[in-house]
Amino acid sequence: MKIQIEDKEFECMLEYDQIKKRIRLIGIQMNVDYEEKVPVFVGVLNGSFIFMADLIKEIDISAEITFIKVSSYEGDASSGLVKKVIGLDYDLKNRDVIIVEDIVDTGATMGFLLEEIYKHKPASVRICTLLLKPDALQHEIPELTYTAFEIPNDFVVGYGLDYNGLGRNLKDIYRAIHVPSET
Ligand code: 5GP
After folding, report:
1. What are 84-97's pLDDT values in tens digits?
2. Measuring CA to CA, which residue among 152, 147, 149 is closest to residue 133?
3. Ligand 1 mean position, distance from CA 36 (Å)
């Protein structure tokens, strides 16, 4: 099914059923990896709110949840300029941190975020991302442990991800259709 958001047309790429199944597997893995621990899930707003909600329901060990916000991105092209982290007031000292992100594109946002989080002297840091664009990745991120889906360099919306503020409420994930130029 195709949908239109402002000037862009999108087609379905990942259905909710598929997403849920994958998240279930990640949850099972985390329950094993963090057995005997009490990790802090740090969701990166706004994009991760739906992913976090579904992921945390698959976690049956003790866990805490908090959210932060990184302002860095406008429209449909990554600026590479990360401005600041808001809300990192949770005590992460000696804690096992799991950063929950909607998408890792160039990795610039995550690089900056990791630097900020390490200042709090956590015991460990791992990243769980819903989507990863391996071809766009410009930074090594050894903390990247859990990836739900690797996708091509398409612009995607839905399941928490937006286009100019719209589309976060879509249940499935959609990719922008590239219209071939007429010249
Ligand atoms: P990076 O710093 O890794 O290049 O970009 C990460 C951020 O860019 C993500 O947190 C997300 O906000 C935004 N982003 C990157 N690719 C996409 C995309 O395809 N769709 C949407 N909606 N946001 C994206």
Report:
1. 888 888 999 999 99
2. 152
3. 33
Angle between helices 49-56 and 16-33 (to 10 degrees): 60
124-159 per-position pLDDT tens digit: 999 999 999 999 999 899 999 999 999 999 999 999
The closest-lying atom of ligand 1 relative to the alpha carbon of residue 44 is 10
Domain residue ranges of the chain, discontinuous segments joined by +: 39-154
The residues lining ligand 1, judged by C-beta closer than 6 Å to any ligand atom, are 47, 73, 78, 102-110, 155-157, 161-162
- Which residues are annotated as catalytic? 105
Residue with tokens 């739900």: 148
Cα 20 to ligand 1 centroid, rounded to whole Å: 21
Domain 39-154 belongs to what architecture?
3-Layer(aba) Sandwich (3.40)
